[in-house]
Amino acid sequence: MAENQQIVSPLRNNMVKPCNDYFGKVSRDGLNTSDVPSFACCEGVWQLNKLSFFNRPSRQLVCECINEVYREVRFGTADPMLQERVLQSLPTRCNVTFPFKLMSAPSLGKIHDYCFGLK
Fold it and tell me: Where does the Bifunctional inhibitor/plant lipid transfer protein/seed storage helical domain lie (predicted)?
């Protein structure tokens, strides 16, 4: 796990801070078609996307990273349904297609379905 953290932590750090503005604004004001994440935020999403296509261990790292991002992100709303919509909007807004769907389970702080299927 320590080795995974050496990979996951930098990826997470590249994504959490740059994407916080997007998550906070969009979830506070509602999901609008004009909302676009920053270039720095999308760069983190692109890095994760590239890694997610290598192999099963790589996809597990991506999953761990997304879980950590989800736990650390400051959403502008407590509504779990809106949080999930905002989270799911990120790949599309960054012009990325992950080989899985981002689905959150806010009470667990986990991304489910995809992640649990890998473990």
Answer: 18-100
